[in-house]
Design goal:
Blueprint: E1 4-7, H1 9-12, E2 42-45, H2 46-72, E3 82-86, H3 97-102, E4 108-111, H4 117-120, E5 128-131, E6 134-135, E7 138-139, H5 143-155, E8 160-164, H6 174-183, E9 188-191, H7 196-204, E10 216-221, H8 229-239, E11 244-249, H9 255-264, E12 272-277, E13 285-290, H10 294-301, E14 307-311, H11 319-331, H12 335-345, H13 356-363, H14 366-369
Parallel strand pairs: 3-8, 3-9, 4-5, 4-8, 10-11
Antiparallel strand pairs: 1-2, 6-7, 11-14, 12-13, 12-14
Length: 377
């Protein structure tokens, strides 16, 4: 059993931290806004998580109580609505207009670990933030608890925004949440997001399909639910096709096994591949290498989750692939070192654009960005 887990402590405390400013709702602390520094990874002991979790339960209960009181006083009789909103791979410039619009209307926002801090700045100041993120070895809440929270807030009459990284219906468990809420009579609308595969491949100049090179693309998850190993094995048999681009979400921990299985099914050892950590964000890190050598290069570079893997001939079409091969040959560098040198020297077009968050906020009148908080008079 893992005694410690890497968690984003600041995100865990978004809805738990006491503010020095007076709360606008009696007994309920305001959420931490965009002034918070970029989150950093820290070690958090189980006992610390338990204390934070207790505070979070108190605040959640208090918020539900306020919403129910508002409903009882006739301010809102019908159940609220739930919007599942995909926030894309992390760059706020890739957020859809619909997502940005809805983030200005929420009473309550439940958000995941993969929703970037830049995107959270676009949520209006009156919304209450509830962190429900997950990562390997530590879940702030189980999926069943997330289902229940969504239902409780909706039944209390709130407009609920469920923010998810990427697209809610691509390995985001959005379908499960929709099914649960619809079974309980709650209306749900899903707003698609640019999935990590599309955003990252576009960023690196990798066409997922290309005439004469790749005629199909497959999305896989490196995690399989209990009992799903056979289904995954059958899927991998088709993925070894040299004309198929294979994109693996959450595959960092299972990459050695994945490589062995693909090699056993005939995929060549020198198949081009790339691993991308926190793609499309300012923290993006990239490692290009062959399928056989990719795991070692990832370890050398120290990539961490979330990391997307792209395997296939189309990877060789990326400008970065050629640059890494040339740099490694000329300087005797490892693939990890060459990747770092090439990608740090390359200013992608995204970084030359105006700051997306600032541009959106500048265009929105102040009265549209700030709404009355829940429970205020």
């Amino acid at each position: 059993m893992i005694g410690h887990a890497l968690v984003d402590k600041q995100r865990l405390s978004v809805s738990l931290r006491l503010s020095t400013a007076p709360a606008r709702v009696p007994g309920l602390r305001p959420c931490l806004r965009s002034s918070r520094p970029r989150a950093s990874r820290v070690l958090c002991k189980a006992s610390e998580r338990q204390i934070s979790g207790s505070d979070g339960e108190w605040e959640t209960s208090r918020l539900l109580q306020l919403l129910r009181e508002r409903q009882q006083h006739g301010e809102r009789q019908a159940p609220g609505k739930v919007f599942l909103v995909g926030t894309g791979p992390g760059d706020p410039g890739l957020l859809t207009l619909r997502a940005a619009q809805l983030m200005q209307t929420a009473d309550v926002v439940l958000y995941d670990r993969l929703v970037s801090d830049d995107i959270l700045q676009l949520v209006h100041a009156g919304a209450r933030m509830v962190y429900v993120g997950k990562q390997a070895g530590y879940h702030t809440r189980t999926q069943a608890e997330i289902h229940q929270l969504l239902l409780d807030f909706a039944e209390a009459g709130a407009t609920v925004i469920r923010l998810k990284g990427g697209d809610p219906y691509v390995f985001g468990r959005g379908g499960e949440e929709v099914q649960y809420l619809q079974q309980h009579g709650i209306k749900v609308h899903c707003v698609p997001g640019i999935t990590a595969a599309a955003g990252i491949c576009a960023e690196l100049g990798i066409p997922m399909t290309h005439r004469g090179v790749a005629t199909s693309v497959r999305f896989l998850t490196g995690h399989s639910r209990e009992g799903g190993e056979l289904q995954l094995d059958e899927t991998l048999a088709a993925c070894a096709d040299p004309h198929t681009t294979l994109i693996v979400y959450m595959g960092l921990g299972t990459l050695p096994l994945l490589v062995r299985q693909l090699r056993a099914r005939g995929m060549p050892a020198d198949m081009p591949a790339v691993a991308v950590e926190r793609g499309t964000t300012s923290e993006q890190r990239v490692v290009f290498d062959t399928l056989q050598q990719l795991h070692g290069s990832i370890q050398e570079a120290g990539l961490q989750s979330p990391t997307l893997l792209v395997i296939g001939q189309v990877v060789a079409l990326a400008p970065g692939w050629t640059g890494v091969q040339d740099a490694a040959a000329a300087g005797g560098l490892s693939a990890a070192a060459a990747s770092a040198a090439v990608t740090s020297a390359h200013d992608c077009a995204r970084l030359q654009l105006d700051d997306a968050v600032a541009a959106v906020l500048k265009q929105q009148p102040q009265q549209q960005r700030v709404r009355q908080p829940v429970g205020s008079s």
